[in-house]
Prior knowledge:
By secondary structure, this protein is α+β, with helices and mostly antiparallel strands. The chain is 37% helix and 18% strand. The chain has helices at 8-19, 72-80, 93-107, 134-141, 165-175, 185-195, 202-210, 240-245, 249-254, 260-269, 275-283; strands at 25-27, 47-51, 56-64, 84-87, 112-117, 150-155, 180-182, 215-219, 224-228, 234-238. It has a four-stranded mixed β-sheet. A four-stranded mixed β-sheet has the order 5-6-10-7, with helices on both faces. The chain has a two-stranded antiparallel sheet with strand order 8-9. Strand 8 (215-219) and strand 9 (224-228) form a beta hairpin. It is globular, with a radius of gyration of 17 Å. The model has no long low-confidence stretch (mean pLDDT 96).
Amino acid sequence: MGIGGGGDVVGALAAAELLGDAIVGGLSWERRPVDPAPGPRRLDEISHAELLNESVALAGPETSGPGGFLFCESHVARATGERTVLVDPHPGPRAIAAALDDAVAKLGCGRIVLLDVGGDVLAHGDEPGLASPLADAVMLATARFLSTPAIGAVFGAGCDAELTPDEVRARLDEVGTDGEQRLGDAQLDRLEAVAREVPTEASAMALRCARGDRGDVPIRQGRRSVTLTDLGGVVAWFDPLRAMQTAARLAAAVVDAASLDEADEILEARGIRTELAYEREMARP
């Protein structure tokens, strides 16, 4: 599962390459250039998807949101020829966890990877570049309630232009990783072929890091800059429960939230502006 919305599903493919047979997916939350409505889409707003339960669906190449936009998961389904998973994060960590457990049983999977592209899932909350902490925090917090074994992962450290690579390295050291892996050339070839079909910047930057590119690169139409580093090309694995006891303070803060809105209010009360607040502000007339 790519847990940050948008193109994080491409990062999930990196984990799938390393782990073997897997179904990849992400959230029903697209970036504003794709879906201008604030927040993630509820499953009853989505067309051409197979519902597994109230919060999880299977997406194919034609799966679309209001107005006909395609999710990144739809593009990945077309590029790979395999259906992907879409998760609606509205209900909050406990309910999402129950839905994921149910979906995993129906799909015949044995574990769940909660992968963030960039590394802001491990944010303390006071990092200057932090811009989209809500989705990551809510999804990592599901690990507290999952019956299915769960693994946390970061791919593309700093590649979303939020936490810097040095900040991500410090957070990973604080958590203590359970290994860090690199993709081989053939795996990168397959991922790059998919990434060309998906509107994603952060995951594309991670693949550039993995290929050995270095230096500063503008993204988000020049509003932000990414520093391509060696760490950016690595998949780092960690225990999500240990993360919530250490670096992942925002996930720990929202673990008992009964909804996405409540989680947003919890972070707002801590003085942390979320991607949901930003999208709502931009949508005001």
